[in-house]
Amino acid sequence: MANKNGVEWSIRVDDGSTMVLEHEHKHGGMRLKSLIVRFVTRVWMFVKKAWDLGVDDPRKIFHCLKVGVALMVVSLFCYMRPLYDGVGGSAIWAVMTVVVVFEYTVGGTLYKCLNRTCATSLAALGIHWIASHTSHQLEPYIMGISLFILASATTFSRFIPVVKARFDYGCTIFILTYSLVALSGYRVDHLLHMAHERLSTIIIGTCLCIITSMVVFPVWAGLELHRLVSHNMDMLAKSLDCCVADYFCCGDEESKKSLQSYKCVLNSKASEESMANFARWEPAHGRFNFRHPWKNYLKIGASSRSCAYCIETLTSCLASKNQVPELIKNHLETSCMNLSTTSSNVIRELATTVSTMTRSAKINMMAKDMNHTVRELQSDLNSLLDLLIQPHYHEEKNELSEIIVMPEVIPLMSFASLLIETASRIEEHMMKAVEELAEKARFKQPENEVKL
Hints:
This protein has three domains: 7-56; 66-215, no CATH class; 229-451, Methane Monooxygenase Hydroxylase, Chain G, domain 1, CATH 1.20.58. It is 73% helix and 5% strand. The longest helix is centred in the first third of the chain and has 32 residues, at 25-56. 31% of the residues are buried. It is elongated and about 95 Å long. It is mainly alpha-helical.
């Protein structure tokens, strides 16, 4: 049976009941439109996020273009007959090399290129030496034993921290190349010629990556680390100010948004270590010499995270800020706000010292101001005892006594103690780390001292 709105079928079964199957074209059309709209919306959101990412950092777009150009140039060794005849069938190794070793930063590219070239050379030389000093009958046994020994020893070396940090990729490539050349070279008569072709194509690919990475819109890992450390210090100072202002109800909506800025410091350890490792491979560039003390940036990052953990604990005190009596809170508000201001000023001055690579002429005076506000807060905490002592009348003894009310005040005292601890870590860890970097990197003297 059909109706006006759609098509309907009725089926009568043996027990006398009727089963109705209805298919409405309108409902099906609405579902299809909904799926299309949802798909288009998701595609649009993806395109928008990709566009925002490119606008926020155009260097990422340039990196994509550099990879495309490098692959296009190296592919000529496969498409052009004269170039293909020069490298033989190993031309594809040049393409694979570009895909594998081309990194976002110059240091990352150099790290992988040098590791890959050296590992391939050592593997090829090792295979050739072993093959030339063994007879044809013993060659498969010698190859198998050497493969077992070298693969095991190289894999074990990757557990050594120094080797893992600098040569982990090279160890992997050494095992891979040695295995491939050993297995394929056993059935190939011209083993040295094959190793030479593969090494030549790998050198071609690595040289092309290095030149493209260093010449066309280079992104230096050292400069990225330099900017990241100073930026994290600025975020730390902003978060400290916002946290104290929010606790005493002095902050605005903008400060509440910046309250979680310290989290970028806690999450940057892996990035800092990676950039410091890549920066060691980079040549001198800009204001950075070849042996620039990149390890000291890691010390500054560690000291920043030490302060960030204190700030993270400070933010946990915000949940109990309403439990503290206003009279007690007002007693410590001024000293806490002053300590927050002086501490954040010291952090910002240290960040400026790192970013400009110029020693600060007023950092010592600012540190004295911070210590002075610490002593003021400690004095206010000692005088807080007078406010906590309250008279209480005992009816049975008919006399006045004094009791101390503590539970409501514990959160405030914890908050103040954490502020003092934060200031202590700034002076003992962060200032010393920046001073050590300034000495080793030979930061410029402040202008007023130069004039003197």
